[in-house]
Write the structure tokens for this entry.
Amino acid sequence: MKKYEMIFEQLQKDIAEGNYQIGDYLPTEMQLCQDYASSRDTVRKALQLLVKCGLIKTHQGRGSQVIKHEQIDFPVSQLTSYQELVQQHHMNSKTNVIAIDKLIIDEKLSKLTGFTPGGLLWRVIRQRVVDGIASVLDIDYLSKTLVPEMTRELAEQSIYDYLEHQLKLDIAFAQKEITIDQINEQDKLLLDIDSEHHVVSVKSRVYLANNQQFQFTESRHKLEKFKFIDFARRKRTADSDLSLHPTDN
């Protein structure tokens, strides 16, 4: 690990443990250079990482101030669009549409997405910037049969709003897979990765009420920006017994 990464991790830990409270200023660059026996360039690289993580804000002539840093609850068990999440949490977010492509489904793409080979898909790649930090990379594949048109304007807004209110599609449920993945070259290019080595990947196959798949999506998230939540209820023993010993009808 490089020296500036070590300084970053220690300062990040100090902030997390409350050694520096919200509103406090970190020691000056000169003091940090002395504390860590490092050059000013090394200290500045560490501070830049803290800025990109949303932990501090630099003020010209005053130094680096600790700011409010909250993780955003990402509901695993709900089928919630990104724009709905933005509205619920009043997030400061911007969507950048990286690419819109029309693809023929080959065997490899079919295995990834679940769609039958030979058909056509829209692929929409979007970068989500939260509080000035590129935090989410969304890669959506949509059935062109069910979604005949896709434009940059639609992709910048809520695709689900377009599907439900204009195309009148009845979006019902999704099958999700959540993994911790090694970062790839696309992540490095489109996310503010810094010293991180992993992202949270959420892959979803999404279906209409008639059980027809219309979408496959992969959302790749910076680890520290979102926390993933679910609601679990314990199954009662009596219910289990009934399922094992059904009554005769």
Observations:
- The chain has nine helices and ten strands.
- The CA atoms of residues 108 and 203 lie 16 Å apart.
- The two ends are 67 Å apart (CA to CA).
